[in-house]
């Protein structure tokens, strides 16, 4: 029994490498810390991308947070202060638990929303890697699909498993960009609504001051021209 060409390609990708992508949104309170961890093996690759937004109406607009990542021995893989976005990749040098944290402990900090994505690629050595049926047949992207796919065309001998992994990476990047656009739109909308509210209340205050001043002037003028008679 022979597997269909597409099924063999997907089977090869599943056995050669495993890539995991997870997206999260958290609310980070003022002066709070949120930490997460991933258990990795040596030579596994991990990428964390994040950006901050603000759901609070009328906030000051400060979106900076602290981000750091610790390896199993307690050393820093990443340590950034006062950032609103980040994109960090690293390769695990030892087996163990890798912890990454978001801190919102700045003076005058307000509640923030943090959207972050975690990409992981499990390393598989060549000795553990099964034979690739597509590569054995010498089938390439151009030979199999007969399409012009410019981002992959530069690799003349790129096999279908590699192409599928490349497509997975590209889709993950598109998803990250969409999350970024959503977050920025929400932040800009909150800023615009906050500005409109402040302008509205300032105008009401100015109107009240003008009315009060007008009433005071009328009262003062009437009192100034008032004639007093002594009987």
TrEMBL record:
Question: Which Pfam families does this entry report, sorted A to Z?
Answer: EMP24_GP25L
Keyword list, A-Z: Membrane, Signal, Transmembrane, Transmembrane helix
Q: Which residues cross the membrane?
A: 201-221
Q: Does the keyword Membrane apply?
A: yes
Where does the signal peptide begin and end? Answer: 1-23
Cellular component per GO, a single term: endoplasmic reticulum
Domain called GOLD: residue spans: 33-120
Annotated membrane topology is: Single-pass membrane protein; Single-pass type I membrane protein
> Could you name the domain of life of the organism this protein comes from?
Eukaryota
Q: Which subcellular locations apply to this protein?
A: Endomembrane system; Membrane
> Can you cite a GO biological process for this protein?
protein retention in ER lumen
Its main localization is membrane
**InterPro entries in alphabetical order:** Emp24-like, GOLD_dom, GOLD_dom_sf
Secreted is among the record's keywords: no
- Similarity comment: family membership: Belongs to the EMP24/GP25L family.
Task: Provide the protein name.
Answer: Endosomal P24B protein
In its UniProt entry, the species of origin is given as: Metarhizium acridum (strain CQMa 102)
Q: What is the lineage of its organism?
A: Eukaryota, Fungi, Dikarya, Ascomycota, Pezizomycotina
């Amino acid at each position: 029994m022979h597997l269909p060409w597409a099924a063999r390609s997907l089977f090869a990708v599943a056995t050669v490498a495993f890539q995991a992508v997870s997206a999260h949104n958290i609310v980070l309170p003022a002066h709070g810390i949120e930490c997460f961890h991933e258990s990795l093996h040596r030579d596994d690759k991990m990428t964390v991308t994040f950006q901050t937004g603000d759901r609070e109406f009328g906030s000051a607009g400060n979106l900076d947070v602290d981000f750091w990542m610790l390896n199993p021995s307690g050393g820093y893989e990443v340590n950034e202060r006062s950032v609103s976005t980040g994109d960090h990749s690293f390769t695990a040098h030892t087996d163990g638990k890798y912890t990454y944290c978001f801190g919102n402990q700045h003076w005058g900090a307000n509640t923030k929303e943090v959207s972050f994505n975690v990409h992981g690629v499990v390393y598989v050595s060549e000795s553990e890697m099964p034979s690739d049926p597509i590569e054995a047949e010498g089938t390439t992207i151009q030979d199999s699909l007969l399409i012009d796919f410019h981002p992959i065309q530069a690799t003349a001998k790129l096999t279908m498993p590699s192409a599928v992994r490349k497509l997975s990476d590209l889709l993950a990047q598109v998803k990250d960009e969409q999350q970024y656009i959503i977050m920025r739109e929400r932040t800009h909308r909150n800023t615009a609504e906050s500005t409109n509210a402040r302008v509205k209340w300032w105008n009401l205050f100015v109107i009240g001051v003008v009315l009060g001043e007008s009433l005071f002037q009328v009262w003062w003028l009437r009192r100034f021209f008032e004639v007093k008679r002594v009987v």
